[in-house]
Amino acid sequence: MFKTILIANRGEIACRVAATARRMGIRTIAVYSDADARARHVAMCDEAWRLGPAPARESYLRSDLVLEIAQKAGAEAIHPGYGFLSENEAFARAVTDAGLVFIGPPAAAIAAMGSKSAAKALMEKAQVPLVPGYHGDNQDPGYLRGQADAIGYPVLIKASAGGGGKGMRIVTQADQFDTALASCKREAASAFSDDAVLIERYVQRPRHVEIQVFGDRHGNCVYLFERDCSVQRRHQKVIEEAPAPGMTAQRRAAMGEAAVAAARAVGYEGAGTVEFITDQDGRFYFMEMNTRLQVEHPVTEMITGHDLVEWQLRVAAGEPLPATQEQLAIRGHAIEARVYAENPEKGFLPSTGRLEHLRAPAAVGFEIGATPRGNGAADPAGVRIDSGVREGDSISPYYDPMIAKLIVWGRDREQAIARMSTALSDYEIVGPATNVAFLKRLMHCDAFAGADLDTGLIERERAALLPAAGDPEPGVLAQAAAAVLMLERAGDAAAPSGDPWAARSGWRGGAWLSRTLMFGRGQRQFPVRVDYAKNGYTVHVGDVAVCLAELALDADGRRVRGLTGGEAFDTGAMLRGETLHLFTAQGAVQLAYVPALAHVGEDADTGGGVTAPMPGKVVAILCEAGKRVERGAPLVVMEAMKMEHTINAPSAGTVSELLFAVGDQVPEGAPLLAFTPA
User: Selecting from 3.30.565.10, 3.10.180.10, 3.30.1490.20, 3.40.30.10, what CATH number does the domain 132-201 have?
Assistant: First the structure.
């Protein structure tokens, strides 16, 4: 076994590998960009080396620097994680040529599966079922359009070197093809330095089911069953679960054997995933093979009891697979939710910012990388957190906006869903926008709970998953009032003035204070009248009166406890600027809170304009200064986290001036162009 390995990655996968390596007695070396100098993976490793500036092309994608550091630091092997250099054939070959071990498949296997087009041709020879499509080398736009016409719409344009949902477009009619192709090629070139695409028929209501495979250099190859990854947004996975709901033993065996055949066809070693698209009748078609460990590998670990990172290390060191196919079995059900810094209400746009407050649910029996051994003596732990960030870290625009992977296990799918819902209720994040509340609604969505799955579930259930914000309940407003009152009291204690008239205890000569706290959400305001008393408060929300008693604030000033109407509550509370963040038993709530007279005399009219919805780079300008456009017309294409986002005209009007050029970096909220509505 290796004594020292270098982890050529960042975030939760680098932490995951470091934890398993430590448990196995292997020394680890981290590499980092300037943006990650204080990152969690740097702290977890035994040694850390700087790669370069924050942009990935100047740091994590610099294979020459990674190799140089590995040799200087005395590493015997390199673990590439996933993303970045993990599926880079040239890097894998360079590692081997340098006398080091690449903890992954041979370069030839990466090459064979690295091009979706070539992989499909190879699978066709191996008689693995394929979706009808074009996977050839001719990339002339006119020729590709002709192929799409021949296949029949709807079609899917997909980056040949792609993955992670990048460089993919669904085209429903011929007149949309050219625009979709151009956008797909731009995104593919940016993400993979290769704009080649393939075209295939778009399967209606498809499910995304993938098979985990593992091979060793002794000729052994097994499948560790399947994962259903159908719940997606923008072709990127949001929820993964294992086993796949509704999977029969016969179909599982057929898909597993097809996946093993695909792996054997390229002499595969290490961890890999063969991805299939299935229709609602259960027919399956090869989609692609990811020649690396997948983000969603923890659900496979949870149902099999095997640590796949440990398997990777052992196989790379020349050991045979730790188990045969006959020794592998499924136990229970596992679900993984990807907790992202993004705004579901704004089209899942990525969000950035400092994690001012981060409180994750308790991981029951797990540390990162620790996996139940699967001996049948006891149930695996119910909750696991894989994360590469800590409170105080920042989510930057340079990398994927994942905060954590939340993984739960249950005896069956129903228990796993219930555990996931509870764990999401315990997540508290203040800083960037997150999808936590969205994920909790997803757990309670009838389609998901009933396993009526396909890749269009989120869009189909949009009304239930992305409802308009309603008015807060009186009990929530009472807890908001309790939070403000206790935070004020803590402020008085921290900086006593000695003036009883300035204190906010409510005491007055001859009477107790009565005041109104004003909360808001959107355009609506919610006044809460507070009557002070000797032993507590009475708050009035409309016609409802609630007594607050026995209030207490935690020492860190972030949790308020007490009684509302005689019922106990324990609520996370943070006031940041003019936003009060509450984490109640019913979920997270954000309310505007503006103290009286805070903005007297200010002009509230902020005007309008076409602004950047997130920080990113301008990659295309689709309008001209001085030209009239109609409502919804595409104006500017921005790229953030390697995904393209099109900004459309808010109304009919005229573009009077372009304020940025292609290639410019733009901060969130910056005006992109001067726009005069009609």
Answer: 3.30.1490.20
CA distance 13 to 550: 44
Any residues with CB less than 8 A from the CB of 493 and at least 6 apart, and which? none
88 near 82, Cβ under 8 Å? Answer: no
pLDDT at residue 82 greater than cutoff 80: yes
Q: Which residues are catalytic?
A: 292
What dotted CATH number matches 207-465?
3.30.470.20
> Which residues of the chain form CATH 3.30.470.20?
207-465
What angle do the packed helices 413-425 and 436-444 form, to 10 degrees? 150
Which residues, 6 or more positions from 263, have their beta carbon under 8 angstroms from its beta carbon?
213, 215, 221, 272, 274, 289
| Alpha-carbon gap, residue 70 to 78, rounded angstroms | 8
338 pLDDT more than 60: yes
Q: φ, ψ for residue 485 (rounded to 5)? A: -60, -45
Kindly report, residue by residue over 158-199, the tens digit of the pLDDT. Answer: 998 876 678 899 999 999 999 999 999 998 888 888 999 999
Residue 588: which of 465, 484, 476 has the closest Cα? Answer: 476
pTM equals 0.82
The position carrying tokens 């001209």 is 624
CA 135 to chain centre: 30
Fold of 4-103: Rossmann fold (3.40.50)
In the chain, residues under CATH classification 3.30.700.30 are 474-593
